[in-house]
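User:
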Amino acid sequence: MVINHGGALKKEYFISYMKLIMNAFGCTIEESKDKTFERLFRFKENEMGQQTYKQFLLAYQEIKNNFK
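Assistant: Predicted structure:
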């Protein structure tokens, strides 16, 4: 997936990205969150800005709640 660094990424982007990771690697929701955080944020919450990080956390919560 291509990232445009011009603005904050939306929750829907992260939902799609984490689902892609889960399908591609056959991993859990938590593993998908960890891989996404590593790949996109390089283990730093502020790597892509606070708004983008907040959207990432919202996406994780939504996926987690929908897969119960």
